[in-house]
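Milestone M4 deliverable, item 7.
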Amino acid sequence: MKSVFVVLFLFVAQNLFAQFYKGGQSIGASTEYIGVNYDNDVLFGLSDRNYTFGFDLFLASPKLQKVPLLFSRRPASEHVFRRSTFGFSYNGFTPEDISSAEIQYGDRPYAASLLFHMNDETAFRQIGIRKESEWTVGLIGPLAGGHPIQSGLHKMIDATQPNGWQYQIGNAPVVNYRLKVGKQLLRTEKLEWEVAGQGMIGTLYGNLLGETSLKIGRFNSVYDYSSTASKGESYLTLTGRGVGSFYDATLQGSVLNRENPYVLRSSEMQKVIGNFSARYTKTFGPWAFGLSYNFLSPELKGGKVHQWTGVHVGLAL
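Output delivered:
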């Protein structure tokens, strides 16, 4: 891939019907909005490997709070913030040498997932506690369309064609549940510090996560937000995470389908992974724009670190 601007144009042109959630992407403390995200590793080495690209479409609306799968029944009030989000995401993963038509032993397998997310977030302002619960359903495997999507994009921008998708992780349904609990430790006019713990279990991922995040600038917070933003927000969010991973279907294949051309053994995977992200967000009236940078420590023993960037656009409804 040669230009992030070309890739972004292709994404907008072809995928407005589609788009991280991914775990409930949010726009400040808004409770009703639509947003899109696009991630790509194009800026780092001009190559495709690991988490190589992803795009998402997500919608937040108070009407979603009536969905039975959303566990919280606590209504929004002066002391309780509530946000419910529905999202669609596509994610693609490749080994380092996509030009090779052979299995790349010791590297990650090709994998693609097509997922739908239902996320519910509740913040209890008086005690400074925030809870997120999320159900994810979808599929992993050739039916997710990883090969034609990546091949089509690369053909349009005259980039290296991927030749190893025939060895991708096999088809399997996805059902995953995620629970996250955060605690606000510090809040000043232009600073917020939060720590959080998260657990995820299902047929796609199984892991435990510890997180600390610092928000700096002019912003509204779910912990003390009481009205629609009346001034533009401009802030930087810095987040560090430690992940204890015990299952990853994009590396090991799904527990529901053991017929895979190539997968990694548990002994080949790192059990503890580090992640750092920095995201700048700026709002203009009802619009929100964001740019993010992500760093991931090696997922495989003897593997390489991975970096990617993201573009985020949202519109408050």
